Amino acid sequence: MRLSVMLTQLTYGMVTSVEIFLLTLIFSLPLGLLVAFGRMSKNKVLSGIVKIYIAVMRGTPLMLQLIVVYFAPFYIFGMNLSGFRFPAIIIAFSVNYAAYFAEIYRGGIEAIDKGQYEAAKVLGYSKAGTFFRIILPQVLRIIMPSVTNETITLVKDTSLAFVLAQAEMFTIAKQIAAKEASVGPLMVAGLFYFVFNFIVAFVMDRVEKKLDYWT
Amino acid sequence: MDNHLLEIKNISKSFDGEEVLKDISLTVNKGEVVSIIGPSGSGKSTALRIATLLEKTDGGTISYNGRVAFTDESGTVVYADKKELREISRCFGLVFQSFNLFPHYTVLKNITEPVILSGAGREEARTRAMDLLAKLGLADKAEAYPGSLSGGQKQRVSIARALALKPQILFFDEPTSALDPELTGEVLKVIKELAALNMTMVIVTHEMKFAREVSDRILFMENGVVHSQGTPEELFNSNDERLMAFMGKLEA
What is the tally of structural domains in chain A? Predict the structure, then answer.
């Protein structure tokens, strides 16, 4: 195989990996906030269900979750969803990462002094106003280092999509490596993840500094 | 109606079966300055928190300008509806012991945002805030973040923040307890100036000398009841043993 063909294929895989990464973040970050609210709800039934959901998401392998999300509709209902490989991957990643992000949000929200809520209440802020204007900006600053960690893990976790034969970076690199009996493609893949994460870390560092404008 | 701005009748409160407030009543007239003193755990702050609707009461009645925030006349405590409570909340302001400024807002925004949310225009809010900051000697701190201020400056900002909403009565919950002795003076001076302007205030404090100077009336609370009350002179010249012991302890 010519080098240019190989690189073209790897580039194609790279784009898919970045897509999985971005879509997962877009869905799991807001979803995680909702999950955190559910987890902190005074409603015991709701918080109980959410607790179980988080426990399952964190307690079982993401690879297994990917397989279940993709194949369960077929095994249970006999539905043929073979065209929905990519959506299945995004769903599995999003609900998994939402669980982790939820716990990060919860930690941040619980770290805010209750005096902030009381001051807001006495000053006439509504519940929503208090959360979005007063609490959330402070929470975001607190949780940034943890979010960065999780985001870096996500970059590497996108490679798990190989288990559903999604043509992302790792899947393609593995295929080419096997076909060509060469370790080169795997090296390229490794370099890709490393550079990707280098960029992620750089961007997150900038965001962190931006959120830290008041100290 | 008379000039009763705040009327508290028979409020009570327990936490986990422990009676923190047994039976507290207090009437505050317009322009009056009332200090509440007493040992730690006597229920002073809890009473203030119930009056400012931060804590639910177990019993009793509170009204501002005759508007009832909650009452237990029917046997159980009934709070006014949300809308009415919001309206009533506009009557009072509260200055916290720990300031509770919003750290991610500048001093100016800390003061203006609540004013804007209350329905005033941006320009109006800014004018009010800058006026207050100038009066409190903090005009040059408008664009600073609370984290860069001293404790005394923070507390003055939080007083400005409360005043900007033009409350009819201002509560202080141990406003100097989180401050170095050196910094308490600048905050107490501000409160004295407000008293001179006839601001109605209820102040929970441990500063006896200050309470004596600024108050029209002092309440001595202990074990969840008002042990005694009167003008500063009456209380400081009292022969009551418990009261003398408390004052003596603090002045020593």
Answer: 1
For residue range B131-164, what is the model confidence (pLDDT) as tens digits? 999 999 999 999 999 999 999 999 999 999 999 9
In a domain, B235, yes or no: no
Q: Does B237 touch chain A (CB under 8 A)?
A: no
Question: Taking CB atoms and an 8 Å cut-off, how many pairs form between chains A and B?
Answer: 54
Treating both helix axes as pointing N-terminal to C-terminal, what angle do B122-135 and B107-117 enclose, rounded to 10 degrees? 130
Placement of tokens 């100290």 in the chain: A215
Q: Cβ separation of B89 and A129 shorter than 8 Å?
A: no
C-alpha closest to that of B167 among B120, B216, B201, B126: B201
Q: Do B117 and A124 touch (CB under 8 A)?
A: yes
pLDDT of residue B73: 86
**Residues of A with Cβ-Cβ distance to B202 under 8 angstroms:** none
Half-sphere exposure of B63 (CA within 13 A, CB side): 12
Q: Which residue in B100, B106, B149 has the most chain A C-beta atoms within 10 A of its own C-beta, making it the best mutation to test that interface?
A: B100
In a domain, B40, yes or no: no
User: Which residues from B are below 8 Å from A121, CB to CB?
Assistant: 53-54
Contact B45/A at CB under 8 A? no
> What is the tens place of the pLDDT at every residue in B44-98?
999 999 999 999 999 999 999 999 999 998 889 999 999 999 999 999 999 999 9
Domain that holds residue A189: 3-211
Contact A124 B89 (CB under 8 A): yes
| AA identity, residue B202 | V
Q: B111 lies in which domain range? A: 102-166
Please report which confidence band the pLDDT of residue B252 belongs to, taking 50, 70 and 90 as the band edges: very low
Specify if B89 maps to a domain.
no
Q: How far apart are CA B102 and CA B111, in angstroms?
A: 10
Residue of chain B minimizing CA distance to A210: B104
- Distance (Å) from the alpha carbon of A112 to chain B's nearest alpha carbon: 11
- Rounded to the nearest 10 degrees, what angle do helices A44-59 and A85-110 cross at? 120
Strand partners, B34: B202, B217
In a domain, B25, yes or no: no
B98·A125 Cβ contact <8 A:
no
What domain count does chain B have? 1
HSE-CB for B91 with a 13 A CA cutoff: 21
pTM for the structure as a whole: 0.89
